[in-house]
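Q: Fold this one first, please.
A: Sequence and structure below.
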Amino acid sequence: MDLPVMPPVKPMLARSAARIPAGMHYEAKWDGFRAIVFRDGPELEIGSRTTKPLTRYFPELVEGLLDLLPERCVLDGEIVVVRGPRLDFDALLERIHPADSRVRMLAERTPASFVAFDVLALDDASLLDAPLTERRAALTEALRDTRQPLFVAPATDDPATAERWYEQYEGAGLDGIVAKPLDLTYRPDERAMVKVKHERTADCVVAGLRYHKSGPVVGSLLLGLYDGAGRLQHVGVSAAFPMKRRQELIDELTPLILDSADDHPWAEWARAEAHAGRRMPGAPSRWTGGKDLSWVPLRPERVCEVAYDHMQGDRFRHTARFRRWRPDRDPASCGYDQLAEPVRYDLGQVLTPHRPH
């Protein structure tokens, strides 16, 4: 492979903002695997956000991109799996599997798509120093004829349209808006863009904790919500605390620590076989590797308010953000019924084939 921009390349990143800024280029924020695609004739490589190779996990994507991409190019985009009218991140996670036979089976069962939103190189030219407006024009011209599995991300310069997308697209599984300055050059691994994500709050039961890697202070809080049958389900964690706050939390929660998990609602987590069919905080996975996932059971008596962006099935898609304790809330009242459900939106109205005029 001999391209003007060679792997590995870390993608340009975004910093968070509370509101959609004016006077910029806007795109939807996709909920998938960020990826840089390198194509040089018959050779194609897919690198992850951390530059790890993803190529072997998506054979159907490699085949489709070799058929549709320009002969020599480097593209930035997102790998997604579409199920019905929505993105399905759980199905995408399953695609990362060590067994080649399962990789091939999943490629047929849950085929992936690539949504391109930037171009770093085309033919023999590097576009890293070109302004965004020039790169966008080059991208749409190079990908004039797209179909599954290749799409061009919709974009607009109109803030009102971006606001509408922010509200509508969430129902299709997208999680916000990315805004980019019109003159922005491509800056690998820098937070040069702006992301505006949905944020909601929920009152959750704190039913366990994990210690921080530095010592006996809180690393993360394990959060639960009651389902319709009255079972306390694990929905995620809250983990980002200053060190001083981690010590304060352990002081506050030590009286709730149980000597044993036998009488805890999540007692079955101690049995390895319980992890086979359910997502549990002590379950090993391909993503955690050898990371210590042991947890400390707490009496489920404390309630905290957390902020979250959106749900992935029955749990928080990302780490929730601790806001405050809620001593006024009864833990038994903390159920799924308090969670906001976005209006459904058909992803087919977002991802449409691009045809030459």
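Q: Good. Now the second chain.
A: Here it is, same layout.
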Amino acid sequence: MRMKPSRNLLLGLCSMLALGFLYYSSGRISLQGWGHKSLYDKQGFLLKLDGSLPLELIYKYGNLSEGACKPGFAAAKMTAIYPKFTKLAPMFLDSNYKRFSKIGDHSPPFGVKSQEKIIDILLSATKSYGLGEELDSMSCKTCVVVGNGGILANKSLGHRIDQFDVVVRLNEAPVKGFEKDVGSKTTMRITYPEGAIQKTERYETQSLFVLSAFKALDLKWLRHMVFNQRLRSTDGFWKSVARHVPREPSDMRILNPYFIQEASFKLIGLPYNSGQMGRGNIPTLGAVAITMALHNCDEVAVAGFGYNMSTPHAPLHYYERIRMSAIKESWTHNISKEKEFLVKLVKAGVIQDWTNGICGAGC
């Protein structure tokens, strides 16, 4: 006599079938313990980066004329390879900066904790918190971050760089005398006290002076610059600093420290170190500027990025004779991990690298 399956057995089989259907139809049940391979790396970036556009982006940007600015393009491509990306952080601190809890929980360089009083004083003096009326009103902005690398020399990219709506320069890298290769336009110069131009005649006639504060002392230094006060002591700085910045307070800004925090802990994956500056957990200013651009620009390009240690006699910077071999092991930066991050952006087409120095022939 054939035995009929029990009711409990049938219910169990149905449950297993239902779970199997959910797994294969939605793919949302993680079975890593059963050999499932993740599509993302430990930072949350898509492992397969081939530069191709997702179907929804092809539909969105496919009909634009060649050369037209693509609204939201950089953020859309970034989100496609890094789903945790959210476009929420303005370039500079403004009078409502305390609404961002992520920077309120950390001291410089990753936030503003314990520095609110001096920041409020600085913001009340500068009174301006954007790029300027014309740029702020644009519905689509193209941006280029110009690095200081020797790879820029003899590339004749100056005219192309000047075509961007926003040209970002870093530290004391000069423009005068190098216009053919680096352009003549400067929208903003991001720096810190030790990296700022010290000879006032070398400043552009018009540009925003943007402080990236890596320590509390940097904000005190900026207060002297904003109020044109004499800097009596340079104790606490690791080298000489600028003593005067030829800019009106309305042309000075404080870079949102969220970009240092995001670049370090989320995008590059540097050590958290209890949220304090420590060995190998500070991104370079170039990586910070690129992170800022991804949040605030519709299209992003870079030029003058990439160290090639296999060519020790190549020029380190485009404006001086120091060689690549002069690079020493940095206490604060992790160049190799940072390069991994930048290579992802180039491979996926999130940013365009005009000097091809980030990954060379490897992209």
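Q: Anything worth noting on the second one?
A: The CA atoms of residues 156 and 181 lie 4 Å apart.
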